[in-house]
Amino acid sequence: MHVEYPKPRWSDKFLLLDMLEGLKTTFRELFKPKVTIRYPEERLEPANRFRGMFKFSFDRCIACKLCALACPIDIIYIDVHDEQREVDGKMKKLKVLDRYDIDVKRCMFCALCEEACPTKPKSIWLTTKTYELATYDRNDLYFNMQQLEYWEGRPEYAGLPAEEPKPVIAHDAKTIGGAS
Length: 180
Ligand code: SF4
Ligand code: SF4
Prior knowledge:
The chain is of the alpha+beta class. The chain is about 20% helix and about 20% strand. The protein has a domain at about 55-180: 2-Layer Sandwich (Alpha-Beta Plaits), CATH 3.30.70.
């Protein structure tokens, strides 16, 4: 198909009217407030409902696996085993949390895991306001229980809930009711 374009007028070429039209937009935008920031020197504070990096509470988790069941793409890996232990003078069957991993590189940040968590406050949550998860190696985005709780090597920002006292982890295991 042959397209006929209008022929440029000699006055347009001579007076550079097109360029002036473009510069008009440039000058108009020059004096408007900027919407960009000088990242990483400056950082924007995400909204309270923003879903960012996970945080896990070893103390609160009751090893119920509801978060893993709620995850639509099955990227939460939990291993537990049952143990008989004495709690308040009585023998009780307790769930022991051996593994709590999240393959964050596949996560779509839907927060269904957080919603499914029955503990109050939640044992897994995404409202940490931390969005800087960039890495050179995809495998760095596979987090185990310790990394999800302590965020070693990850920057923390305002908006992150105050750090809780770190539990003493005996035998790398977690039990219901705080017994270990
Ligand atoms: S936020 Fe990620 S881990 Fe949690 S349910 Fe959604 S996809 Fe799964
Ligand atoms: S994080 Fe919440 S839902 Fe997941 S196993 Fe722990 S208590 Fe259950």
